[in-house]
Amino acid sequence: MKVSVSQVELAAVEAGLLVVGLCEGEELPAEFAAAPGAADAKASFKKLAVIHPAQPTRVLVVGLGKREDLDPERARIAAALAAKEAGKLKVASLAWAVPEHADRDALVEGIVTGTILGAYRFDRFKSADPDDPVPAGVDSLSLLAPENVAAAAEAARVCAQAQNRARDLQSLPSNVATPTYLANRAEEIAAAHEAVSVEILGRNEIAAKEMGGLVAVSQGSAEDPRLIVLRYAGGGSGETLGLVGKGVTFDTGGISLKPSAGMPDMKMDMSGAAAVIETVGAVAELGLKLDLIAVVPSTENMPSGTAIKPGDIITQYNGKTVEVNNTDAEGRLILADALAYAIEQGADRVVDIATLTGAVMIALGSSYAAVISNDDDLASEIEGVGRETGELVWRLPLHPEYKALMKGTVGDLTNAATKRKAGTISAASFLEEFVGETPWAHLDIAGTAWDVGREYTGNDASGYGVRLLTGLARSFSA
Fold it and tell me: Which residues are catalytic?
């Protein structure tokens, strides 16, 4: 989507639809006050009304609620509603009269993000109907605001479009979005940016490196696994940030087979990988000044005659042994190898992101992702960026008693605690065994990766994590 900033008068706007926000106790712009339909305009949050002044021919009034409640999140929601209304009206170009605000840049971010995310649709596999063609959708957004917000608008455009690309990856069926497909996408990003390099390891190379977790999970599938390593050399004076994303492109549960009811959604068990891969693309496009290493272990988790079995013992990349007592607790096995590898490759601080546990959905629903960390500063930084971006996180604790749940009987660790206690935290406690003293944070996005229900993400793939991780990278750039 093309995004521009303009200072034209409201009456001179040439876009297919002009959007004007209305706060409670305030009036419509004078040029629209007597227009047909103006009496229907309401300032209550989320209320919409189309009015028809002489010029421009259509104006959408969006209720913003109380002025003191107007913040970037409300702007995202309002902009998404406007984008969806533009779609119904088959409008391709949109203009927004950006309201006055103490932090105009933040409000612009909200409007751009909400518009791009709200206009998203995934229809790649739908046949075209010649009798009822689908409109192209909104392809341009003009912000009526001072020119000095242009940088904020461009950064928001880059991040939102990267998030939509992550949503595409999430939404693709698993017979398309295989580990090889994810590797190819990483190669596309590297080819597009001089500062990005990529290394792809196949089954033999993974086995040669003795990455026992990724080897074990992948051995039941005919699809070859991939270890995807992206490096971004942006310079700067800070430490190297490591990102690790879970890339299980389809998760049957393996021998510990999942129930059939929710199985189609298991194509999205690579949501962490999608977020990490597209974050690297966004960071490179923004030209952030930091060094970054991203590691994505990708595989299917399938039952077969060659699949790992409950009770098997594997050796992870860092040498620790694990009793695999539940093959559906596979994500932590491949993340363990990837975390140890990212740190060995030079990550000074590392964040992993994964659709890891159903337990986090019980604890936090779809409003917050869980963050669990061994470092207060890193956790605090992630929480702050989450508040700015609207990709919210809630910190859960670590404690030696949780770690004790993951002790093995005949191996060092078990991948599934025998007691159903603190499932999200015990999974993170398992991962902590593979980071040593390196500052580390784990994001469990099983509740926020899809079916969030917000106006700008809908009920399907959300692309959660791209703006959060890119914002984190921006906070570390120097």
Answer: 258, 332
